[in-house]
UniProtKB/TrEMBL annotation:
Pfam families: Peptidase_M48_N. The chain crosses the membrane at residues 7-26, 66-89, 109-130. Residues 30-131 form the CAAX prenyl protease 1 N-terminal domain. It comes from Pinctada imbricata. The keyword Transmembrane applies. This is CAAX prenyl protease 1 N-terminal domain-containing protein. InterPro entries: Peptidase_M48_N (IPR032456). It comes from the Eukaryota. Keywords: Membrane, Transmembrane, Transmembrane helix.
Amino acid sequence: MESIEDKIFYSVLVFMWIVYVWESYISSRQRHLAKTVTEVPDSLKDVLDQDTFTKARLYSLDKSNFGFWSGLYSQCESTVILLLGGIPFAWNLAGKWLGRLGYDADYEILQSLTFMVITMIFSTVTSLALEPIQHLCTGRKTWIQ
C-alpha cells in the first residue's frame, strides 16, 4: 500500500509533466505559426522590412527548437533528481558540511541556506553547458552572416 507521501510525490511528478506537455503544446503552435507566416503582416509593413522580418522569424524558429530540446532535458533532469532522491541527498550533504563546521541539527535555517547554495551551484553548472550551445544554435544562421 502506498503511503500518503508517495501519493503526493507522484502527484507532483505527474503535475510537472502535465505542465511541461501543455507548455510544449503552446510552443509548438507558436513554432507552426513562425513556419507558416513568411511575409510581413500588413499591419507591420510600415515599420518592418522583409529582410528583418525573415531574420527575426528564423531566429524565433531556432530559439523555439532549442527551447524544446532544452526544456525536455531540464524536465528529464528534474524527474531523475526527484526519482533518485537528489533533494534529500543535497539536504543531508548540507547537514554533513555544517556538522564538520561544528553546527548540529538545531541550525535548520543555516542548513536551509547551505542546501540552497548546493542546489544553486548544481543548477548553474548543469545550465552552463547549454548557454554557449543556445547562442550558437540561435544566432549562427540568422544574424551572423
